[in-house]
Amino acid sequence: MRLFLIKLKKIIFLPTNKLIYQQNNMRTNVVAGNWKMNKTIEEGIQLVKEIQQLLKTYPVTRSMESIKIILSPPFTLLKIISDLLKETPFINLAAQNCHSEEKGAFTGEISVGMIKSAGASYVIIGHSERRTYFNETDALLAKKIKVVLSNGLLPIYCCGEKLQERNAGVYFEVVKNQISEGLFHLPPGEFSKVVIAYEPVWAIGTGLNATPEQAEEMHMYIRSLIEEKYDIDVATDTSIIYGGSCNAKNARELFSNPDVDGGLIGGASLIAGDFVQIIHSA
Description:
Helices cover 39% and strands 17% of the residues. It is of the alpha/beta class.
């Protein structure tokens, strides 16, 4: 198990043919469980209690400043789970989405103020399912990022290519556009609050996942874009996590890559034992 993610001094050739001198650095690893549209109130309470018990039995031995554990249940469970997590304050809470406006006549939507009052500190923005099923554009996601940050919450911004884009060899361009249009309007201080989740769409819920080499290649490329836009300090301090059929069996190998700083976990986060094992792999 990696106790710390240390960036050794070395020169790395990036996909852009740009050299980055990586200085000694320790980033925060993030393991976030996205429950999606799963779990009733009773089921959610039971899952959280199982996770808490397992973490008491098998505690994380590393400094909790070097890893963030996040649960992202449906909106109906936010306040209840927030209360449960008072027993384990090292576990954070995230909403799965928010509206781009702070309030108004938007029936059925949830504002960042509501999310914050329910006890969440993170919001997932731009998940591929939101992009695909609800036609969310990068321009809309940029507005969501702004409202999340202006209300003191922290965004987990998702990006990633579809299978046809991967096969066509344009996956770097796709991810570059998503990040540039969704995030690069932010000043450095605001950008530094963002966690980026690379989720190849072709690997979500399919049982497929990017190879460790594919994941590292894209994470390294994303870091090079950040360095080009801001500077090397911002780039090396940004947590970039992997999402896409990450599970208890492959997490350790994926997370062993120097630029993969944890995972956005889907189905495996619904099984307490698997999720805790993934946490210990980070």
